[in-house]
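Exercise 4. Each item below gives a protein and its sequence. For each, produce the structure-token representation.

Item: Deoxyribose-phosphate aldolase (Streptomyces gardneri).
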Amino acid sequence: MPTTASAASAFADVTASDSALRRFLHGLPGVDAVGLEARAASLGTRSIKTTAKAYAIDLAISMIDLTTLEGADTPGKVRALAAKAVNPDPTDRTTPTTAAVCVYPDMVATAKAAVAGSGVKVASVATAFPAGRAALPVKLADTADAIAAGADEIDMVIDRGAFLAGHYLKVYEQIAAIKAECGDRARLKVIFETGELSTYDNIRRASWLGMMAGADFIKTSTGKVAVNATPANTLLMLEAVRDFRAQTGVQIGVKPAGGIRNTKEAIKFLVLVNETVGEDWLDNHWFRFGASSLLNDLLMQRQKLATGRYSGPDYVTVD
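Answer:
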């Protein structure tokens, strides 16, 4: 099966120089913004039946990277979040676990111990998150520390300043270096911070740049800016991974993050996945939600489907 490494080698000529990479990225088809937003809005109006909704809720729960990325994070808070990831609803053991817990590098060891034996992954932001403004040796050290502490996945941020200045090869080489640091030890998610990229054309270019450099996932946002995941920017990234697989045979995951807070919104994103890239991506190995508050609403909606009534405010924990 083709790998991200084989895909990267397939683009060796394109990535040989800044000018060649620029020609390729600026040669990608322009994005019809009106058409993109109209299609995303149209797919968002799809309704699903009760049995399909129950399936979608459980699928969404299983796709969550349950996240805490605050300066005030403590080992106790991380252990509590990890316990919730492993056992989201203590009253119903049929509730799926979340995909992962996402924390800062210094909290990886705490999270790893808390989820041991559960199958829940530990993801760590790295590379001078959330700005991504640091020298490459610092970014590599940040990544190495997280992996040494037990991280299964690394969520890196690109240098948006370099990207917006047109220094595409610099961004490519940094992603490739972080991917090499991850090796086979951790999957790499590359965060674009789509809200800062200004145009849909830039989001398409960043998507291809990340995939060519070896990303295992492409991710919309850090959750730290005003505009995070939207149906339109996620649809654009889904189209990119679809086209990339058609060209290379390599499948890349997608992670919308930030601003997805309730079940209705999550299901809209799952419809986008199903209608754009199909069932191959309807699995937490290939699609994730970066979220903190989404899980609570999914649990309350799940309980309503089971009992016919909404739960009280004390049914879920406040993260």
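Check: The first strand starts at residue 64 and ends at 67.
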